[in-house]
Design goal:
The chain is of the alpha/beta class. It is 32% helix and 15% strand. The protein is built from 15 helices and 16 strands. Strand 13 and strand 14 form a beta hairpin. Helix 7 packs across helix 9. It is globular.
Length: 484
């Protein structure tokens, strides 16, 4: 029986799970995350439900896969229509507070389910990235130069916003959290780093800019894998064409590393406040990110692919009933956090069609192996794409294109696509059938495009959407969006 405790959920944005000290990276400085991993359990094969922000966060809120809830892209923000864990816990009398980025719709009258939202970031004008609704004959987006151009030392609106989030979280823990309550509370603290722009605070940027940083995997043109899905994405979001040489790449990686360390610093302040407020013994903690970042590997930047760097996420969980200093290789997903949230605070887990299994049980080893799914229906894709992780196998299914298959036990860096090899034909077919147990890819693709066509018509059609320009990244609260 899980003893009811408070719960602190810490989320970052676009954190490549390989870029942590506790994940074996000996360059990055992440002392807060490393300490959390030492007193808890880290999942080394954890995945987002979707490698792009808005659908991933809607799925995290509702505990379901994207094809179950129908928030497909960055122009279709969660508005509260499907009950979330925040709705359900608030209804039961728990204080459920969010501080920082939510990336929900945020229209007037929307109820996202929190008791209180403090400095929330939502999609722009409750509409988001309308141009991403265009799914055929996709043009190259403008603003792709920002990835390289903004990489370097300095402050962005995001670094300022993240410090504000950390400050407000510390104040809440010292003042609001210590008030006597009949039921445990849940605090959701959501940072933006290390999401681009890759402008890192100077004290962290210069920790890495002079280092011999590793070159991105398969970065040379003759090393890059060829697949039409990857070509579609690289054509639409042409970040890499704006990197003019090795120095640009090193500057971007130093910026990203600096942002990871800056995020870790802010996260550490929140965890210290939890301890100093005397609540650490009565509070469980989980850290994750909404998705990862390719960080130049294979010539790709940003997210939107199913490689481990992009669809993989860090998940670290700590508490009095969680094994200390353990690493679990069992594949897990954000959907597995959902039932555990209810268990943490002593609330019954909703008996609906959520697909998750408790992260606590998975950490303790009392739940067996499982398969997980990620999917993509957004910017730069002409058709639905799915990832199935089942044991050692990662299977990628495309409605429009040939599949891919990787053996992550023998090939953890995903350097060899086995899908075309006769020796793996049976595995490929078994994975395809396993995916069909989750959903029908063709039917899901049809539903996604139907919804996107409806939204596109609402905003005036294809030409009107393209004329709106490109949104490089959502502005922090109180700042203006940059439209190219």
């Amino acid at each position: 029986m899980t003893t009811p405790r408070n719960l602190l959920i810490l989320m970052s944005d676009e954190h490549n799970p390989k870029i942590m000290g506790c994940a074996g990276n000996d360059i990055i400085q992440t002392p807060a995350l490393d300490a959390l991993a030492r007193r808890g359990t880290r999942f080394s094969s954890a995945y987002t439900t979707c490698p792009i922000c808005v659908p991933a966060r809607a799925a995290f809120a509702t505990g379901k896969y994207v094809h179950q809830i129908g928030y497909w892209d960055n122009a279709d923000g969660y508005e509260g229509a499907i009950p979330s864990w925040h709705h359900r816990l608030r209804e039961r009398g728990h204080q459920v507070v969010a501080i920082g980025k939510l990336h929900f719709r945020g229209a007037r009258g929307d109820d996202h389910g929190f008791s209180k939202e403090i400095v929330p970031m939502h999609i722009v004008d409750a509409a988001g990235d309308v141009k991403g609704l265009v799914r055929d004959h996709i043009p190259t987006r403008k603003g792709g130069d920002k990835m390289a151009k903004y990489a370097g030392p300095g402050e962005s609106t995001y670094t300022v916003y993240d410090r504000d989030i950390a400050s407000r979280a510390q104040i809440w823990l010292h003042q609001a959290a210590t008030k006597r309550r009949d039921k445990p509370w849940v605090l959701f603290v959501s940072f933006v780093a290390p999401h681009f722009p890759l402008t890192a605070p100077p004290e962290w940027y210069y920790e890495y800019s002079g280092r011999d940083l590793p070159s991105p995997k398969q970065y040379a043109n003759n090393e890059r894998p060829e697949h039409p899905y990857l070509s579609d994405y690289a054509h639409c979001v042409d970040y890499d064409t704006h990197f003019k040489g090795p120095e640009d790449v090193k500057r971007a990686i130093a910026g990203y590393y600096g942002l990871v360390s800056a995020m870790d610093e802010n996260l550490g302040k929140v965890l210290r406040a939890l301890e100093k407020s005397g609540l650490d013994k009565d509070t469980r903690v989980v850290y994750t990110s909404d998705h990862g970042d390719n960080l130049g590997a294979r010539g790709l930047w940003g997210k939107s692919t199913f490689y481990e760097e992009s669809s993989g996420v860090p998940i670290i969980v700590a508490g009095d009933d969680i094994p200390r200093g353990e690493t679990r290789a069992t594949p897990v997903s954000h959907v597995d956090i959902y039932p555990w949230i209810f268990e943490c605070v002593g609330a019954p887990v909703p008996q609906d069609d959520h697909p998750g299994r408790s992260l606590g049980a998975l950490a303790r080893g009392s739940a067996g192996a499982k398969a997980v799914v990620s999917e993509y229906h957004a910017i730069g894709s002409t058709g639905a794409a799915f990832m199935l992780r089942d044991g050692r196998w990662k299977y990628l299914h495309y409605v429009n294109y040939r599949p891919q298959l990787y053996d992550l036990e023998a090939d953890p860096e995903e350097l060899r696509d086995l899908a075309g090899e006769p020796a793996h034909a049976e595995v490929l077919e078994a994975c395809r059938k396993r995916l069909l147990e989750f959903c029908d890819p063709v039917e899901v693709d049809r539903r996604a495009k139907h919804r996107q066509a409806e939204l596109l018509a609402k905003y005036g059609g294809r030409e009107a959407a393209l004329a709106r320009g490109d949104l490089g990244f959502t502005p922090a609260p109180g700042t203006k969006a940059e439209i190219d």
